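forwarding from the other thread:

> can someone predict this with iron/sulfur cluster?

sure thing
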Amino acid sequence: MSGGYWNRVLVVDLQQGTSRDEVLNAGARDLLLGGSGLGAWLWEHHSVSGAGALEPGNALVFAAGPLTGTFAPTSGRHEVVTRSPATDAYGEGDAGGTFGTALKRAGYDALVITGSAVRASVLVVDGDQVRLEDAADLWGKDVIDVDTALRTRLGGGFSTALIGPAGENLVLLANIVHDGADARVAGRGGLGAVMGSKLLKGVAVRGTKQVPVHDPDALKQLMRETVPAMREQAIGMHLFGTTGGVQRAEEAGDLPIRNWRDGSFPQAAALSGQAIAERLTGRYHCAGCPIGCGRTVRLHVEGHEGQNGAGLEYESVGALGSLLMLTDLDVVEQAASLCNVFGLDTISTGGTLATAMEARELGLVTAADTDGIDLVWGNGAAVLAMIPRIARRQGFGTRLADGSRKFAASVGHRELAIEVKGMELPAHDPRAYVSLGLGYATATRGACHLQGFSYAFERAATMPEIGLTAPMDRFDHTGKVTMVKATQDLMGLFDSLKFCKFAIYGGLNLTQMGQFLTAVTGRRVDTDELMEIGERIYTYKRLLATRMGISREDDTLPERLLSTDRGGSVAGHLAWLDADVLNEYYDLRGWDRLGVPTVATVKRLNIDQLSIVGPAPEG
Ligand code: SF4
C-alpha cells in the first residue's frame, strides 16, 4: 500500500525506560486495518499472557487508523486498547480530539506501552525523539493542570493523553483524558487505572510529518462529494451536540431515570442541548471533522473557574442528570466537569452513584456511612461532594471507586447495579430500542451502545449497503438479531478505519468508506469485503474476551430491564433477550453455545492467520 500507513509502531518499555520502532506487521494490518482491530492485535502480541489488568504485563495501546492524519472527514480519531480492570476482560476506548492525528504526524501508526515505570513519569514523543520524563511534580494534579504544565514545559503543538487523580488511585471508573480542558476521553472500562498502574501520568505527542496519501486527487474529489452533505445533514449535531437529543430521548423512553426505574422526567428540556446553547462559549471540532459536535462552556470547578472547557454530552446528562434525578443544569454541568478534571468516566460514575442512591433509599447505607454526605435522589451538592472522594478513594468514595457491581454486592443487592460484565449501562434504554438488549449483552467490552450503535438504525440512520434502507421499527423484534450482528460488524469497521460514528448522521455510507480507504492507501475493497473485515475484527475481539474468561453467562442484562416496566412512552415494553435470541445470534456468528467462536469461524475469517503472523522484526 502506498499511503495511509507509516508501517511503523513505537514500542515503549516503561520498566527499562527504552523505546524502539517496530515494523507494522503487514498481515495484521491488512486483516484488521488499524484502530480497534489492529490495536487489539498489538495488545495481544505485546502483553504477557494472562497478565491482570493492573499488572505490568498488560500492554496499553494507542492505535490510529489508516485515514487518521489525512483530510478524510471525522477520521482524526484513535483507539486505546488494553485489558480492562473494570471488567477484567477486553477493554477499549474510542477517542476523538487531536492525539491520533499527532501520533500519525509523528510518524507512527500506533504506540504500544509495556511494563511499569519505576517512578511517576510522562512519555514524550516529539517526532522521532522519544523520552520518559519525571512527573513527580505532576502526580496528584488534575488533567487541566497537567495539560497546562506540559504545554508550558514542552512548548506548543503537543497533544496529550492524561490521567487525573482517579487513574493514579486505580479507580475502576477512571478515563484517559486527551488535551486537558478539551476533555476528549478514551472512556469506559477503567482505562485510566491501567495508565495509573504503570505510573504513567501522561503521554505528550507532537509531529510534523505529512501522512502519505495514495491518490490525493481522488481524496479531494471524495471530500467535495461528502463534506458539504455531512455539514448539512448533521447540522443538528453541530448546533446542539449530542445533548440535542435529550428531550427526544426522554419522550421516547430512552433516557434513564432514577436508576432505570421511572418513565418520565419532565425536566429534560432544562438539560437539553437547546438550553445549553445559550451558555456556549464556542464549538469544538475533532481533527479533520466538518461536523464539530463538541461545545465549550465556562467551567465552574475549583481551580478552573471561568476557564473554557468541554460542554456536556448526552451521556453525561443521562448518567449525572436524570439517572440521579438532578434537574439543575449548573449542577449537572459541574458534575461532568468534575469527572473530566479528575479523570472519571461520567457514565460509570453516574451509574455507580445511582446504585448508591438506591441503596440509601432502601436503607442499606445511611448518611453516616456516606461520610455525612446524604446521597439521596436529586441532591446535587452530595453528588458534587462525592465525585472527588471517588477519584481520591476517600471515605465512602473508596466503596464506589470499584464501580456499581462491587458496591451493590457489598450491600448484598447485586440487582441494584445496572451493568453488563461489570460496566455500567450508557444512557440508552433497551426497553425503548429492542436491538440494544442483545447489543449490550454481547458487546465485547461490557454494556456499550457504540460497539453496535444499532439504536441509531431504529431511529433515523440508514446504511443501504447492508440492507438498512430505512429506519427499523424500534419495538419490532423481526430481523433484529441479523441487524445487531451487522451493525456490530459495521462499527468494528468504523472503529478500525477510525471514522466517527456520527458521520452516519452526515450521510457517510459504506461505499464511501471503501472509496476513502482506496484513495488514501491504494487498497481496493468492495463493501462485502469491508463487512467481512468488520466481522473479523468483532470476532477477533470476542475471541480475546473469551480467553480472558468471558462466556455465555456474561452475555446477559440487568434483571431490572428484563422484568420491570418503566412506564411512560415505553409502558408494556421490556428488554429483549432470552436463550433463544442468544442462540440465534451465536449461530449467525458461528460461535458455539458458550459464545466462543468456533474453529471453522476462526478459519473462515482468517483469524487463525493472526496468530501465525506474530510480531514483525524490528525495523
Ligand atoms: S462528529 Fe463530534 S465526536 Fe465525531 S469527530 Fe466530529 S467533533 Fe468529534
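Residues 527-547 form the longest helix (21 residues). thats all i got for now
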